[in-house]
Specification:
Number of domains: 1
Number of helices: 5
Structural class: alpha+beta
Strand content: 25-35%
CATH architecture: 2-Layer Sandwich
CATH topology: YaeB-like fold
Strand order of the largest sheet: 1-8-7-3-2
Order of helices and strands: EHEEHEEEEHEHHE
């Protein structure tokens, strides 16, 4: 059995989704790379036990489109009320329009261990780890903070959230970053 498999949630990351995507790699090829990198020890622990952030190699990172742009006084924004899944509470999604996304600096793969996904019956396979998200980080950005809406969903244990508690510093860093960057409506 493979150690890392594709979670159905990550399959929403396609062209036009406003999320990181690869125009030329399958999700299975991406999980193979994430597994190789994790086995090589190129990862850091996530916000709780059972979550890992695996770093892609520089050459592999070139296969991903970064969906973010740095906001300036000329950036046009639009807001939509959306849900990621039918059972989730709607939230306000902000997108930058009429602009091009930033260059990808690097890519990170977010992996959840089977037991963490099983807490909310969100596992798609019986593999030890599942890829749940891909993050292309803009060139020049050291760390991509989790979005405040995701943090809220997790900390309040709302549908679609994974139980967590964040420090006030993590909250402030998230809000500060996401006041400077927005996803591009691509």
């Amino acid at each position: 059995m493979e150690k890392v498999a594709v979670n159905e949630f990550v399959r929403r990351q396609l062209k036009g989704s406003g999320k990181t995507y690869s125009p030329n790699l399958s999700f299975e090829e991406i999980t193979d790379h994430a597994e190789t990198q994790m086995e090589a020890g190129d990862f850091k622990d996530g916000y709780r036990d059972g979550i890992r952030i695996v770093r892609g190699t520089p050459s592999f990172s070139r296969n991903f489109i970064c969906p973010f742009v740095k906001i300036d006084e000329n950036t046009e924004l639009k807001a939509n009320v959306v849900k990621r899944r039918p059972d989730e509470v709607p939230y306000i999604q902000i997108r930058a329009i009429n602009t091009k996304p930033a260059q990808t600096g690097r890519v990170e793969f977010i992996l959840y261990r089977h037991d963490v996904l099983a807490e909310n019956d969100e596992h798609s396979t019986n593999s030890e780890w599942e890829l749940i998200s891909i993050h292309a980080i803009p060139q020049g950005v050291d760390e991509l903070p989790m979005g405040p809406v995701t943090m809220m969903r997790n900390q309040l244990e709302l549908p679609g959230g994974t139980k967590a508690h964040y420090s006030s510093k993590k909250w402030a860093e998230s809000v500060q970053f996401w006041q400077r960057y927005a996803a591009v409506d691509i």
